[in-house]
Amino acid sequence: MYVCGPTVYDLPHIGHGRANLTFDILRRYLSFTGLKVHHVANVTDVDDNIIKRATELGRTEPDVAAEFEAHWWESMEALGDLRPQDVPHATQYIEDMVALVGDLVGRGMAYETPDGVYLEVAKVEGYGLLAQQSLESLQAGARVEANEDKRSPLDFALWKKAKEGEPSWESPWGRGRPGWHTECVVMSLDLLGEGFDLHGGGQDLKFPHHENERAQAVADGKAFARHWMHHGWVEVEGTKMSKSLGNFSTLPDLLARSDPRAYRVLVLRAHYRSPIEVTPDTLADAEKALARLDGLVRRFPDAGVAELLAETAEGFVVEGTPPAVDVDAEALAAFRARMDNDLDTPGALAAIFELVTAAHSAADGGDETEGARLAHSAAVLLAALGLSLRGDEAEVDEGSARLVAERDEARRARDFARADTLRDELVARGWTVEDTPSGTAIRR
Ligand SMILES: [Zn+2]
Predict the structure, then answer these.
(1) I want to staple 320 with a disulfide (CB 3.0 to 4.6 A). Which of 36, 55, 264, 286 is the partner?
(2) What's the 271 CA to ligand 1 centre distance in angstroms?
(3) How far does residue 231's CA lie from ligand 1's centre (Å)?
(4) Given pLDDT bands bounded at 50, 70 and 90, which one contains residue 311?
(5) Residue whose C-alpha is closest to residue 384's, from 338, 434, 435
(6) Residue whose C-alpha is closest to residue 277's, from 314, 235, 311, 242
(7) What is the pTM of this model?
(8) Structure-model confidence comparison of residues 106 and 313, the more confident one
(9) Residues 6+ apart with CB under 8 A from 174
(10) 256 alpha carbon to ligand 1 midpoint, in Å?
C-alpha cells in the first residue's frame, strides 16, 4: 500500500495523527490475517511551503525539512505506528520525475508553457473518476486562474520552472522542480509496481491530488492503484480542523496532554470514513476505555498478556504470518467478520469489550482458567489493532512495604501464624501475595 505522507515544513497536526493511525491499524490487521504488507509512505521535502519556511527562518530547505521530518517520526513513534518499510523522499526521485514528464510530453499528453509543463487533463480517459464528477462539471466548478497559458484551468503542473533563489534541478525545460502530484506516481510505481493494491490518504487528497496522480499514470499507459481508501477528517470542537480556522493544534501537544494510546482508541471507535472529534472530553473518555482494558492485564497477569503483545506486535508484522497463539474461535470469527466488513473498527472494538466482560465474569464465577483464556484472546485481538495494554505494577505504598518487611521477618523467625496474619492484611489492601526465594512479593 502507498500512503501519501507529509510535506515537512511544520510540526505534525492532529489530522496527521489520524491518517497514520488509520493506515497503521489497516496494516497491522492485514498482517494479522496473514498477508504480507509492503507499506510505502513518501516525504515531500521540496515544495512552496518548505521554501517559504526556510526563507522566514533564514535557513536552507534541506535543513528545515530534516528538522520537521524528525518531529514527524517522533510523534508517529509515540502513537505506536510502525514505520513504513519504504520512505521515499521527493528529492531522491527528481531524475525519474523528469523522465515521466518527458514521456508525457512525448505522448502529446502534456505541454510546455513559459512557467512550466502541464498535463492536459481533457486527454485523460476517465478524468474525474475519483472526484465522481464529469470533466464538464469539474471544469464548470474550477477556479478561474490568471494563468492564460494553460489550456484548461484543470490542467496541473508536472514541472515548475525555477524562480530566482529557489532550489532547482536540470531538465529539458530548463531548471526547475517537480509538481507535487508527480512524486507519488513515480515513487509508488517504482516501489510497488504497476497495478499495486491500495492507495490511501485523507479525504481531502481525493481531489485533486489523487485524481491527478491517477491521471498521470493513465496518460503514461500504466495501471495504477487498484483500490483507494480515504479517511475522514478530524473535528476540533465541532468544526473541521484546519490551520486557516485557527484551531490548529499540534500532535506533539496532544501527545503530551494525554495517554498516546487514547488517540488510537478514538480512531478505532469511529469508522475510518467518518469524521472524528478530538477534544479533551473525547480523549478523557478514551482513556477511561483504556483503563478498563489495562485492568484486564492487572487481573490476569498469568495469561502472559504483556509478553505476548510484544511478541505478536513484532512477530506477525515482520513475518507476515498470523500469530501462533490461541484466540477463542468464536471471538476471532466475530472480530474478523467486523474488520473484513470495510474495516468496521467500532464493531471490532465492541466485540473485544464483550470479551473483556466475559473474561471478568468467568473469573468472578470462580473459573480463573477460563477468565485467563478469554483475557488472552482479547489481548491478541487488541494487538492486531496496534493497541498494547499496560499492566504496570502499582507503586507499593509505605504501609504495604512495612507489612512485607514484617512478614519476611516473621518467616525468618518461623512465626508462620504471624506471617499468615500479615499476608491477610496485605490481601485486604488489594495485593496478591507470593512467596519467592528472595522473600515476599506483592502485586496488584
Ligand atoms: Zn500523494
Answers:
(1) 36
(2) 22
(3) 14
(4) very low
(5) 338
(6) 235
(7) 0.83
(8) 106
(9) 161, 162
(10) 29
